[in-house]
Design a protein that fits this description.
With 197 residues, the protein is α+β, with helices and mostly antiparallel strands. Helices cover 19% and strands 42% of the residues. It has a six-stranded antiparallel sheet, with no helix packed on it. A hairpin with a 4-residue loop joins β9 and β10. α1 runs antiparallel to α2.
Length: 197
């Protein structure tokens, strides 16, 4: 009886084991030699899309570029809002991001991220940049169950993003549902047997 109960519990735990699929968006495909940046309307990587609301996304991912921050990154032109979403429309979470100055007036400034959640809610978080051309890491809090996330470049301060840690919950396979039902059925059988005794 103990073996049957342990088997049922293991089946239920296995069925609940649909793990999140994690991705780090590193923009490595944008890395290239030269001094000039690239301008484009949209960019896709690892199942995620980046879209521009205004003049366009741009990259300074060129090792000899004056705004190069140590690795490939994605920026945007002044006053542009960049929106991140899943290519397949699925909900996702953000856990961390790297940020660096792009082209700005001297001094520190704030960058605000807005997460648009499933069901219509929003979550916001503001990070302070020191104005350096070196990527620093920042951690998101509560950026879960998102349909999209957006951020806006300033008029006098522009920045670039890199190493965005994003995850989406995996959809359980049919076999996983079968294991769940089997485990629940086995537990029901064991309870009935116990009650009958």
């Amino acid at each position: 009886m103990t073996f049957l109960r342990a088997t049922a519990v293991a089946a239920i735990l296995a069925a609940g084991g649909a793990h999140a699929q994690s991705t780090t968006i590193g923009f490595d495909a944008l890395e290239q030699p030269g001094i000039f940046g690239s301008v484009f309307n949209s960019y896709s990587e690892g199942g995620y899309d980046f879209d521009s609301s205004f003049l366009g996304l741009l990259s300074s991912a060129h090792q000899s570029n004056f705004a190069y921050a140590g690795s490939a990154g994605l920026g945007a032109t002044v006053l542009t809002t960049t929106t991140l979403s899943r290519t397949d429309g699925a909900a996702f979470s953000l856990s961390s991001i790297s940020l660096a100055d792009f082209v700005s007036l001297p001094g520190s400034y704030d960058v605000t991220f807005v997460g648009h959640q499933v069901g219509g809610g929003t979550v916001t978080q503001t990070f302070s940049l020191d104005g350096s051309h070196t990527f620093s890491d920042y951690t998101f809090t509560g950026f879960n169950n998102l349909l999209s996330a957006s951020w806006k470049e300033g008029a006098f301060h522009t920045f670039q993003v890199d190493n965005i840690a994003a995850s989406v919950s995996a959809v359980p396979e049919p076999a996983t549902y079968g294991m769940l039902l089997g485990g629940l059925g086995l537990l029901a059988f064991l309870r009935r047997r116990k009650n009958a005794a």
